[in-house]
Amino acid sequence: MSEPIISLRGVSKAFGDLVVxxxxxxxxxxxxxxxxxxxxxxxxxxxxxxxxxxxxPDAGHVFVEGVDVxxxxxxxxxxxxxSMGMLFQNGALFDAMSTGDNIALPLRHHTSLSExxxxxxxxxxxxxxxxxxxxxxxxxxxxxxxxxxxGLARAIVLQPEIVLFDEPNSGLDPLTSDTIDRLIxxxxxxxxxxxxxxxxxxxxxxxxxDHIAMLHRGKVEAFAPTAEFLRSTSPVVRRFLQRNLDLxxxxxxxxxxxxxxx
Amino acid sequence: MSGHVRGFARFVGRTAxxxxxxxxxxxxxxxQAWFIGVKAMPILLTMTAFIGSNLALQGYxxxxxxxxxxxxxxxxxxxGVREMAPLMVAAMTAAKAGTEMASQLAVxxxxxxxxxxxxxxxxxxxxxxxxxxxxxxxxxPALTMMCILTLIGTAWLVTMLQLGESGPQFLHTAFxxxxxxxxxxALFKAAVFGLLISLISCYCGFRSKPGPRGVGDxxxxxxxxxxxVCAVVNYLISxxxxx
Amino acid sequence: MTRLASxxxxxxxxxxxxxxxxQRVVTGTMYPALIAxxxxxxxxxxxxxxxxxxxxxxxxxxxxxxxxxxxxxAQRLLSSLISVAVFRExxxxxxxxxxxxxxxASFAAELGSMRIQEEIDATEVMxxxxxxLHVLPRVIAAVITTPLxxxxxxxxxxxxxxxxAVLMRGEPSGVYWANLWAxxxxxxxxxxxxxxxxxxxIIGLTATYRGYFATGGAxxxxxxxxxxxxxxxxxxxxxxxxxxxxxxxxxP
Lengths: 262, 243, 252
Hints:
The complex is a heterotrimer. Chain A has helices spanning 44-51, 74-81, 99-110, 115-128, 144-156, 174-191, 202-208, 226-230, 235-251; strands spanning 4-15, 18-29, 33-37, 59-64, 67-68, 84-87, 162-166, 194-199, 211-216, 219-225. Chain A is an alpha/beta fold. In chain A, the strands form 2 sheets. In chain A, strands 6-7-8-3-9-10 form a 6-stranded mixed beta sheet, sandwiched between helices. A 4-stranded antiparallel beta sheet of chain A has the order 2-1-4-5, covered by helices on one side. The longest helix of chain A has 18 residues, at 174-191. Chain B is mainly alpha-helical. Chain B is elongated, with a radius of gyration of 20 Å. Chain C is mainly α. Chain C is built from 8 helices and no strands. Chain C has helices spanning 11-26, 32-72, 78-116, 119-125, 130-168, 173-178, 186-212, 217-249. In chain C, helix 3 (78-116) packs antiparallel against helix 5. The N and C termini of chain C lie far apart (49 Å). Chains B and C meet through helix 2, helix 3 and helix 8 of B and helix 2, helix 3 and helix 8 of C.
């Protein structure tokens, strides 16, 4: 395994009485795709938010490119974040801005590029996520899958070292979901940077990831290269795999997905 | 705009016909009256206390220029009871109870709970709107009465303690100027405002658009529309009763 | 030091929120274009409701004032009373109330849904200061726009009084305008503007605070809007009493 680019050491987090992360240690290898899987409500998203410094752990440390994001100043944290891009669960696009302006936002704030150069770069990343020509489209006119791709375009526009994905497949139909998976794989080949994907979809994880970690009851239940992980003998992992693969068989092509109500 | 006026008229018509033809869920009416009354009371009383204090201060500074401090009590009770108390109670009820009604119903709308009621053959007007309108109709006149007392009481305290004027004289002119008719009109205004606020707020909730933004916008529209309508209706009632 | 976003609700967080904003006023970019945008939103959304409430209220003051002045034969004082009442109290309170109900509420709804839909988190993850980008311009816009709405409301209130006194009761128009400023002082002008700027600050801070820290999905946005209106109105009505005492209590 290559050098870890993200390391969690003894990270614990509770919301009131609910312990979400319980003394988690985890090393994410650089330049590869790691998936963190687990049933809903096991703190996968919470873990991700600790890495970008949106949440502060009750105990423990999180190192990103050697910087402890739990103790640095706000200004230094912003510097670390500039080397990260994140795709939020529902895209987290700004309703008030057009598609292109959403993607251009980091460029306008963190670079001194001219408007023409910004436009060119945005068109380029829109091309990469296979949505050419949508620059002026209002975000309200985008479909669920398009929102995710625009979110992804925004996440990679600054050419980050690390790209984080929060449930890239949630709320999508199986076909769109597959397209997103393929897009992630191709994007990985083009960019060659570190991908960290949070998902509850084992089929998707097996497809895109080099390593898989499973989070269960606030702890890392298993963490191994994908092929090895799929052969894991841990009963928790087996149960999770079994259930998802059964469902996979019944729906041919992906786990059934319920629409998100909120 | 005209679409909303027509939609609102239809909404009021439906609510009225349900209140007339269907059995009224009395338990829910009292629950709403209690809920609105008790939850809004501390805020309303705090606000009228400040309004009363300020009325006393402003009246005093204005009348002092004319040498008419002795008229302060009369000014406070007439301005307070006839206009300020009903209007401010209406504004604050719109802000507190009205927004709550609008956001509750908007959330029920976007989560398809109102559709679910219809599918279960439970009439949402009888079940959700009628109790809120009748509840506020009971709660608001009672609250207005308490607010009038609070307003005169705090103005009296400010007159004595902060302005150093005679307390008994204040009370004498304050209650001397009030007639029973003033109180009845104030209560009548409160009832009308209550009905308007609840109907407008429920209507805005029912018409909510999806998403968190929809709930926020519905809540927002409810309070502004209620406040404007109450201010206009306040003038009409005063014109009718006092001119 | 723990970061603002991870603090639990309460006075320390509210204090810290105001402190961080104050610090940003002194240092760094202010985004004038955004401030102008939000001012436009506030003004365009609040202007009509402000007019629609202060106009009938000015009419009511004229109506009730005439009832009383008729007893003393002092009708000529009517317009002076209206301008004092409208300038000092009715317009500042009513206009700010409508700015809170309309503009403050929409700030809370906007920021609340940005919070719920993770737009604020996304801003932070892009290493952009969300307080500076989303919050500060709104607060500044509220501080500038509320006094403007107050001046608008004053005009409408005085016009409403004129409608009742002159058009409906047949008082002479010349007397109405001649006595209009008999009792008002310069203090009423700058005092009203200062007061409403403070009210605007209270509205802006309450609205952005409630929206920025909204929790609990779509219902949470409704709650944020509700709390914004109620708390900011209570806040500025209390501030009004204190400011009136200070400003007029010390005047000769």
